[in-house]
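[09:14] KT: can someone run the structure on this one? pasting the chain below
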Amino acid sequence: MADVRMQRLANVLVNYCTEVQPGDWVGILGDVLSVPMLREVYIEVLKAGGNPHLMISDERMTRDFIRLANEDQINWINPSEKLYYEQADVYIRVGSSTNTRAMTNIPGKRVQQIRKAQSPLLTTRLDRAAAGAFRWVGTWIPNEASAQEANMSLEEYEDFVYGATFCDKQDPVAEWRKISAMQAEKINWLQGKKQVKLNGPNIDLSLSIEGRSFINSDGHKNMPSGEIFTGPVEESVNGWVRFSYPSIVGGRAVSGIELTFEQGKVVKASAEQNEELLFAQLDTDEGARYLGEFAIGTNFGINKFTGNILFDEKIGGTIHMAIGMGYPETGSKNRSAVHWDMICDMRNDSEIVVDGELFYKNGEFAV
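[09:31] RB: done, structure tokens below
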């Protein structure tokens, strides 16, 4: 019998996050490890009157493709996937893993080559989402590999995941609406503001948000969520940042990342571990050296680093930035095959000043 918290999460994904309507074409995506959760989502889509389209992948086959595919195979885009991204109404992805380090020995340039070839699908998804034509959400289910990555037992990790999504409560949607209202207040305050300055032990950075919109990430795109984000003016970013936690891409952790920006572009970069992968990301295309996202995490139910960016980027008291692709709905013009989030802790002796007024200090809003 399914965990009631899993059933609540499926209900949240279908009826709150993506608001599935009768007749919607609903893609349900996930690895074979996610099948128990995919079944619950499938049932909820049927109850809502949507048309479920199951799209199951396999972690082992994905690795086989990355290792063995030739140039033509890498550049081939599945016509059925292309049609789905161009015409479907809803995208619900359920993430999981059997081995968080399975990609460790695959060259970073190989991973980026494949991501670049598949980037037209990402661009289509984001552009249609920005236009309101495509509703999407991604989530993650408890599993042994992720629990081990987070230094927890499976039972502890289950409590963590369902706590972060509020599915340990009788009415998770009510909790997400509280988060939404709080974040809306901060976004209203930021409306029309221009210049942001960030200072602290790990950061000395300035950027412009003039003409850009902040988005209230209240669970309608990511579950869990809890952040406000925008796309900074591309050429406006200047200064330096050291990211507090490892950033994981393709199953490889890049730790000790430091970036220096001049007129928006990363002009200096270093990492303590897997620096080769950092430069593979930065050199993917022209847009990869510019910021596509600047965000503030607000979910204090996520209070520790777990090695999973879906959770870690929302840690209350942190900010994160993503090099590469920006979200069009923010006004970002940056385009790239990369969108790579990196997290900076702001809970100690740190502040954010907006147009000369203190907005955020030591991990908490000051307005």
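[09:33] KT: thanks! The chain is about 35% helix and 30% strand.
[09:34] RB: yep, looked fine to me
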